[in-house]
Amino acid sequence: MAYSEKVIDHYSNPKNVGTLDKSKNNVGTGLVGAPECGDVMRLQIEVNEEGVISDAKFKTFGCGSAIASSSLATEWLKGKSIDEAIAIDNMDIVEELNLPPVKIHCSVLAEDAIKAAINDYRVKNGLPALEEAKH
Amino acid sequence: MELKLPIYLDNNATTPMDPRVLETMLPYFTDNFGNAASRNHPFGWAAEEAVDYAREQVANLIGADPKEIIFTSGATEADNLGIKGIFEMYASKGNHIITCTTEHKAVLDTCKHLEKLGAQVTYLEVLPDGMIDLAALENAITDKTILIAIMYGNNEIGVVQPVKEISAIARKHNVLFFTDGTQAVGKIPVDVIADGIDLMAFTAHKMYGPKGIGALYVRRKNPRVKVTAQMDGGGHERSMRSGTLNVPGIVGFGKAAEICKNEMAAESARLRILRDKLENGLLQLEESYLNGHKENRLPHTTNISFKYVEGEGLLMGFNKNIALSSGSACTSASLEPSYVLKALGLGDDLAHSSLRFGLGRFTTEEQIDYTIKAISDTVNKLREMSPLWEMFKEGIDLNSIEWAHH
What is the ipTM of this complex? Predict the structure, then answer.
């Protein structure tokens, strides 16, 4: 299977690998996927007082496309407001990385990870959780 | 000497042709192009002579008589012919076939096909080390059992089954024994007489011969076995497999078999040392696991899981430079993880994190050293990026987590 240049780049030089302190109130952590499926993503956001995502980190257990999808997600999240972050759609990731049909589920998982991180932040800060996404 | 990349360590998938084999084949494409069944002129006679000679070379490799070799298009066809051929030929004796869950798809899917035609098939589970449970095998035999089909050496984990013991059980109960010898023939000494085999499938392209040519061994004495042809036509191969013979392919197969017979002892000893070096080097990594029985194994194969990193992601770290395969779902067309590894009782996560190495005639120690380093570096790099590794290091029991599935 041929990977796109962008996927290879994210895999070889992943952006924002790491861990934020999940006990902090302004950090949202999303952990999605399952080891049996071969895909687990942990995506974390740090939100500043203006409601803007000031930092994002990820760690992923998965194939090159999964790693690239989550790496790209952290790149996009930095500097966005929560509302802008919610608007990120998995097909944006598919387009940007040129994912083939068999890898689309990696982008779906990344979108889930973003929403899970946002949800975690919202719940921690007394805001209502997002509506359950329909896939 | 400079190391040439990419390195090929996927010899269980296929092997490069030995240059000596290629050289032997060439004249049969151009000058000696005759049809081996053309009985009436020199072109045919030359082709027939070449086929006869190659048939003997192939038979010699496995201790058979040349009359017991039926040429096919490969091991898959030989598996089909052997199993379907017996089912049809011995229908009056019974309809029960015993096989096991780690067989190649060519055997499993053939059995599934026969189930639709009225066959009863028992798919024996294997033990966690990949070996057949001989007691379970014997217990499964009924008075309707006509065939036991257990592979000699497994393609994914290299485990070698106790063929002599299986054969003894089969003989005791008057059941025929078929074995898929694709990965074993040419690599370890296989002798159809000493091993008590009644039918065996094998192929040229796993032993440095050309693709598109294989054989089914069908015993003629003690007992005399027959198979119903699956390819009807001109009655070639004693009416067991019609179709113009692939003369150049057969010539190549013969030469490849002869080389294996002559060089097997030295080659398998050399490969065992290299395989063990690779294996020991990689098992140094924390949380790495060998899949399959350690001793009862083909000398050139090893299958290792690296916990907390995923197989396809792992391959991406070096697959431009090293050719391997993985038991990961992502690398299979069906997105299911390796059924062989699952049959060993491996959790899906370990099946996803596995790599299969198949060493071969052209593998060097330098390549092994390079591979140990490249894979270790990639495993370590991916673990730094893995949330599961981080959780493991923190002492979290991953089995206790409720994962958010789709």
Answer: 0.91
